[in-house]
Amino acid sequence: MTRRELLLGGVALSVMGGWAASRASAAGTFEVTRTESEWRAMLTPLQYKVMREEGTERAFTSPLDKNWADGTYHCRGCDLPLYSSEHKYDSGTGWPSFYRVMKDAIGTKPDRIRLRVYTEAHCRRCGSHLGHIFDDGPKPTGKRHCINGVSLVFKAA
What we know:
CATH class: Mainly Beta
Structural class: alpha+beta
Strand order of the largest sheet: 3-4-8-7-6-5
Distance between the termini: 64 Å
CATH topology: Metal Binding Protein, Guanine Nucleotide Exchange Factor, Chain A
Number of domains: 1
Largest sheet: 6 strands, antiparallel
Number of helices: 3
């Protein structure tokens, strides 16, 4: 083994270790908890992949992206109200996007993807992965909550 291989292996292990530590620190700290089998029983395979394994649905596949009805978007995992339709906008990204979240509805943490750090949004009550928050949204917040539609349930006003 060369020094280069040893160095690259060490970097890879430290990156993976940081990711695993960030995942482990979030586990078990939520009001609503379920076993893996309970989550799998209540969610479709795509919903499970997104909400429990931090996956992403394909862009432009969620009917909620183009839903402009008045109402509230709730967490599919625990029914906590997360976003008002009042704060939804068309970001052109293919995912439901919001510039404001309801009070005390989400938690955030760093999400390391391809050597970049993003802000991951999850339900503060059950920990379900929702999507990511970016700094390119409209006024007044300047934030874009880019949310997977499969993580949400829309309830009309």
